[in-house]
């Protein structure tokens, strides 16, 4: 095999590997429907909002839309399900949840919501959705003995913690790490 052909093969393989790595490192893409601008802003810090996202988030859902989805009528949520997308509805955005009376009507709406859940649509709280979509946004480097006080001092939550290989994490610090969704990474070397 001559050198030019070998060089070309190596170049193609490197480009293929680089494309794979790029795809792995890209944040999730979501489609966003609804009026919750604050949620949209928060999610856009963690994921890419796109019209072709593989995840569909519906932040607000009126009563008529809920009935349409439960009935299988045309709606972005139904289209998302048919396209095998993961569909989330934000529980706080359900219009009927603002009311508590009349009880018989609320029970009917609860049945519609149950039908929606049976289709595979996930109804989640705002905070849980942000956590699910959350990528590590902040990284802190610590060395030595990692204690709860060191972690609290830095107010670490939903963050990445980069540790030296020789670092020791106390049991209480480990509990804090789990409770506050802190990802542990170790330095190379």
Mean pLDDT: 83
Strand content: 15-25%
Number of strands: 10
Shape: flat
Tell me the count of domains: 2
Uncertain stretches:
none
User: With helices defined by DSSP (H or I, 4 residues minimum), what is the helix count?
Assistant: 8
Give the proportion of residues in helices: 40-55%
Look at the helices and sheets and give the structural class: alpha/beta
Give a description of the structure.
The chain is an alpha/beta fold and 189 residues long. It has 2 domains: 105 residues, no CATH class; 48 residues, no CATH class. It is 46% helix and 19% strand. It contains 8 helices and 10 strands. It has a 5-stranded parallel sheet with strand order 2-1-3-4-5, sandwiched between helices. Strands 6-8-10 form a 3-stranded parallel sheet, with no helix packed on it. α3 crosses α5. It is flat, with a radius of gyration of 23 Å. 18% of the residues are buried.
Question: Could you give a short description of this structure?
Answer:
This protein has about 190 residues and is α/β, with parallel strands linked by helices.
Features:
189 residues, alpha/beta, five-stranded parallel beta sheet, three-stranded parallel beta sheet, 8 helices, 46% helix
Tell me the layout of helices and strands:
Layout: H1 3-25, E1 29-33, H2 37-44, E2 48-49, E3 55-58, H3 63-71, H4 76-82, E4 86-90, H5 103-118, E5 122-124, H6 126-133, E6 139-142, E7 145-146, H7 148-153, E8 160-163, E9 168-169, H8 171-179, E10 183-186
Parallel strand pairs: 1-2, 1-3, 3-4, 4-5, 6-8, 7-9, 8-10
Helix pairs in contact: 3-5
């Amino acid at each position: 095999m001559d050198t030019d052909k070998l060089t070309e093969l190596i170049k193609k393989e490197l480009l293929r590997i680089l494309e794979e790595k790029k795809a792995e490192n890209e944040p999730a893409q979501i489609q966003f429907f609804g009026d919750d601008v604050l949620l949209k802003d928060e999610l856009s810090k963690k994921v890419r909002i796109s019209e072709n996202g593989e995840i569909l988030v519906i932040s607000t859902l009126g009563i008529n839309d809920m009935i349409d989805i439960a009935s299988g009528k045309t709606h972005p949520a139904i289209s998302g399900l048919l396209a095998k997308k993961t569909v989330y509805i934000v529980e706080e955005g359900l219009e009927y949840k603002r009311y508590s009376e009349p009880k018989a009507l609320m029970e009917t709406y609860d049945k519609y919501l149950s039908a929606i859940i049976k289709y595979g649509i996930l109804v989640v709280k705002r905070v849980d959705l942000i956590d699910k979509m959350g990528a590590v946004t902040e990284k802190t480097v610590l060395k030595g003995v990692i204690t709860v006080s060191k972690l609290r001092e830095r107010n670490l939550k939903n963050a990445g913690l980069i540790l030296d290989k020789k670092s020791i994490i106390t049991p209480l610090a480990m509990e804090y790490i789990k409770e506050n969704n802190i990802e542990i990474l170790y330095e190379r070397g």
